[in-house]
Design goal:
Length: 540
């Protein structure tokens, strides 16, 4: 028997309708790419999004068409999102930090028809545009006065383009499983793969992150979305903030400590989210200037492991709660947050830091488990580590235009991360499955060795890779970047590690290097290191 409740599809634009009607006075404040601070209300945002949808329709864009955006976090970028999705088209966010060949591959694979692009990236397009046969028009997110003289063909100023359309437009009413947005994973191996979000998954994920133990946004919050909108839905903030009625602050291209601080302070931001590198910049700026964070209540740190000093500084010096988050593009992206719960509320000092270093608990709508190589579930004991599998309504079931099956028979998706989960549900990543070192049939966590090594005075960065070994299969090689003025020898690093990691995890060799290679998203390029040290042999 079916329930007798309304068939109300979960469509992304219903969020904006709700926000405009019930929180229309709340603001979206942008550091414009052209320079000044620009303000509008959530009510204005809805009107302009309707105009985007109508102007797109006048271009002949319809259901299922892909429209690309290559832009910073701004009000204009948000209204293009809602406009594209509200028409039934698919918003394809491009990460401008990818290499040109990767961008060309992604755009051609998606067959994007139009591109909204920020001024910053127009020079990039001059070389790229000839390789993008499917793009009919480039709409530069600025006004006619700021439009550059040279650029790709068919380039128009956004404000001129928008001026032709009024807001007399009815959002599409389609099945909630209709595709709404597309984001490619950066693909450390092979070509990037497209994750195709639906209206339903975006709405559910937006609601999920608004749970109190996740980001817990409310109508009194002012949220600064620093994590880029091209980085997996800006971690849902562009849906979650208007759904809650929170004001939004968008930093545009100003990602350095000083400009981030200026907005945090002037706009009295209460909650924000970004990757560790951004927070390093802010913390450095605060230290140099002696400034404070009186308004900020919480900061989400994710995308890469949150360093210990970040937790200590934010919480102990600035009285800002750190929410360590983990996730991935395939998960929309939020998978866990390390919020305190009833059973951990009493923890203080070192015990609290240790808990916050973990990647955290899954909220309702994310299921997770850890399995061994044969697929047997491992106990939630906080030490048995294995492959981390996930399941939920905002997790990918396949990739765009790929036949490859990515779920197992029970619908679980393998994240490619290696982790353990404790009895209270807190998960901790110990490695990527490609990076784990297999020694004598056991696994060595490269991340744990790296994190411990980075704690050694004089060490700036560390990377650990497995080197083939005739007896053990693989043994760890530790690569260290030392501070310029540090007088650091191999024995200093090994002495530091001694007793801090298991004896058989001790690296067989320590090499000092000038730098460690990184990917476009700032992760250590382990495959490049493995290639570089392929013939390395430990001395007897
Ligand atoms: P990409 O793979 O394109 O760089 P993703 O954002 O999808 O971008 O990367 C997801 C991966 O990033 C995760 O599978 C995990 O390995 C890593 N990651 C994300 N958040 C954390 C975190 N808090 N701690 C450790 N690793 C993290």
């Amino acid at each position: 028997m079916r329930g007798l409740m309304q068939d109300y599809p979960l469509l992304v634009h219903t969020i904006l309708d709700h926000a405009a009607l019930n929180h229309g006075e709340r603001e979206i404040v942008t550091r414009a790419v052209e320079g000044p601070i620009r303000r509008c209300t959530l009510s204005d945002l809805r009107t302009r999004s309707l105009r985007v949808a109508k102007a797109l329709q006048m271009e002949g864009i319809g259901m299922g068409d892909r429209v690309a955006t290559m832009a910073w976090n701004t009000d204009r970028h948000v209204e293009t999102w809602y406009g594209i999705m509200g028409l039934g088209a698919i918003c394809h966010t491009l990460n401008p930090r990818l290499f040109a060949e990767q961008l060309a591959y992604i755009i051609n694979h998606a067959e994007d028809r139009l591109m909204f692009v920020d001024l910053t990236f127009v020079p990039l397009l001059e070389a790229l545009a000839p390789k993008l046969p499917t793009i009919e028009k480039y709409i530069v997110l600025t006004d006619a006065g700021h439009l550059p003289e040279s650029g790709p063909p068919n380039m128009v100023a956004y404000e001129d383009w928008l001026a032709q359309a009024d807001a007399d437009f009815a959002w599409v009413r389609c099945d909630e499983n209709t595709a709404a947005a597309l984001c490619y994973t950066s693909g450390t191996t092979g070509n990037p793969k497209g994750v195709l979000y639906s209206h339903r998954s975006n709405v559910l994920h937006g609601l999920m992150v608004n749970q109190p133990d996740v980001f817990g946004l409310t109508s009194s919050d002012v949220v600064m979305a620093i994590v880029p909108m091209f980085h997996a839905n800006a971690w849902a903030l562009t849906y979650a903030a208007p759904a809650a009625g929170a004001s939004m602050v968008m930093p545009g291209a100003g990602m350095d400590g000083e400009r981030i601080y200026e907005l945090l302070d002037q706009e009295r931001v209460t909650a924000t989210a970004a990757v560790p590198t951004v927070w390093l910049g802010l913390l450095q700026y605060l230290e140099e200037t002696g400034k404070d964070l009186p308004w900020l209540k919480s900061v989400v740190v994710g995308g890469a492991a949150c360093p210990r000093m970040m937790i200590e500084k934010f919480e102990n010096v600035y009285d800002v709660e750190v929410i360590h988050g983990w996730g991935m593009t395939e998960m929309s992206p939020v998978g866990t947050t390390g919020s305190i719960k009833h059973a951990t509320a009493h923890l203080q000092g070192e015990a609290r830091v240790q808990l916050k270093l973990k990647q955290g608990r899954s909220p309702y709508l994310v299921e997770m488990k850890v399995v061994d190589d044969d697929g047997n579930e491992l106990p939630r004991d906080g030490k048995s580590f294995g492959h981390l599998l996930v399941r939920g309504p905002a997790i990918a079931s396949g990739y765009f235009k790929h036949d490859e099956e990515i779920l197992d028979a029970d619908g679980w998706f393998d994240t490619g991360d290696i982790a353990h989960i404790d009895a209270l549900g807190y998960m901790q990543i110990t490695d990527r499955d490609k990076d784990v070192i297999k020694s004598g049939g056991e696994w060595i966590s490269s991340i744990e060795v790296e994190n411990t090594a980075v704690g050694c005075p004089g060490v700036t960065e560390a990377a650990v890779i497995g080197i083939a070994h005739p007896k053990w299969g693989e043994r760890p090689l530790l690569l260290v970047v030392a501070q310029a003025d540090a007088e650091l020898g191999k024995s200093d690093v090994l002495d530091w590690l001694q007793g801090r990691i298991a004896k058989w995890w001790m690296p067989d060799e320590v090499l000092f290097v000038d730098e460690i290679p990184h990917t476009a998203t700032g992760k250590i390029q382990k495959n490049a290191l493995r290639e570089q040290y392929r013939d390395f042999q430990f001395s007897e």
